[in-house]
Amino acid sequence: MSTQTRPGADTPRTERTFFGQPWGLANLFGIELWERFSFYGMQALLAFYMYYATTEGGLGIDRSTALSLVGAYGGFVYMMALVASFVGDRLLGPERTLYYSAILVMIGHVMLALVPGAVGLAIGLVCVGIGSGGVKTASQVVLGDLYSREDPRRDAGFSVFYMAINIGALFGHAITGWVWGMAGFHWGFGLAAIGMAIGLVQYTVMRKSTIGAAGSEVPNPLPRSEWAKWGLGVAGIALVLVSLLTTGILPLDWLSWVVFAVALVATVVLLSEMYASDEVTDAEKSRLTGYIPLLVGSVAFFAIFQSQFTVVAVYADQRADLSLFKWVLEPAQVQSFNPLFIIIFAPIFATMWTKLGERQWASATKFGVANIIIGLSLFIFLPYVGKGEQSTPLLVLVVILFLFTIGELFLSPVGNSLATKVAPQAFKSRLFAVWLMSVSMGTALSGVLGSLYNPDDAVAERTFFLTLSAITIVLGVFLIAIRRWVVRKFAGIR
After folding, report:
1. What is the C-alpha separation between 203 and 127, in angstroms, rounded?
2. Does residue 423 lie within any of the structural domains?
3. Residues 458, 55: Cα–Cα separation, whole Å
4. What CATH number does the domain containing 343 carry?
5. For 302-356, what is each residue's pLDDT tens digit?
């Protein structure tokens, strides 16, 4: 630890630092790590908890319905990030949004751990979903407020923060999966709750001394006269949705399609508003046009990538030999390989893009390569189609998840960056919301894919993998083919 003058501050003052970064980064790193530990630890168990028989500690939900719900839930979390941005910008400010969201996540995990059956599942998932969307969004805004715009430490700080996400995911998958195997689902959920509790206590204790005024401002306060209107609107939507679900008018296995449709409508509305605005220049509208095919590429990629929580989860459970040296992994622990590979290879990719500079591939090419890689990864399943239990070596799944990760590194961080580069000056946050909606749509579709996957029919299984592979590879080739058109539309942005 050292002290230094804070760059960009209105009035120079001495600042405590943590390895050269603002001390607040250490606090945000901690709560993000533990929130990701709890979230991914819970998500690793979710599909199994829903479709395992009641005699095995599960809820006995039909497997197709369960996988559809997992996808719908993942898409819901990303949509909540959009809601959280509204709350942070207009009601509470980013820092209080972060704090109360973390509390809501904690409540959700406790409900999953202590309340059995569908009631605990429903209340727990809603609380965790809304809260996680808030933490995901608000934490990065608060982190940004710790730096001035000109602070040279800024990018490095965000890179350190990104590592917290993957460290939390790595240990969340691995440890909660192990606890599930030893003691049952609710003990696994309980461990997730304990992890979130650690993060929340740490953040609360260090909140004033490390975060200070960062993220405390409400940028665009909602007039109190409009609070009732918005509150009644949200309550009305929630009431209609609950009524549709409880009466059976809206079947549970349709939820993935509902989330996809809502995210699609939100995307169209947000883009239309930007196209129609007089504040958006012709050059900015051109960039939006070039951005659209990349959004399609993002949806397709995440539909397969997020299937590690649906299709790949079922495959690991029913078809894979999970022996690793002297140990036998739980199916949920297989999902640990993706964050492990991210931790190893993300710095390599960052260094590679830095060294290449202007010689690096255009964004459309990176998106295309990502789709081709993840499409090709599905071919690895084909030699094992129709075979029985423990017929697929663990190494096969490791290779598949390795390719998933390489594809992710070509697309996900590039997409985050691109959304900020091509956004119209007047709608910087809105285009990032559009990017999140593409992730939401892809995640929801992973639930649809899970509901369509049938490991008990060899012909259907082969057709499933071949069809998905063909679609993503063709789309990837198309994105590479139009890369020059996209670059022209981006007007100087690659």
Report:
1. 19
2. yes
3. 28
4. 1.20.1250.20
5. 999 999 999 999 999 888 998 888 888 888 888 889 999 988 988 888 788 778 7
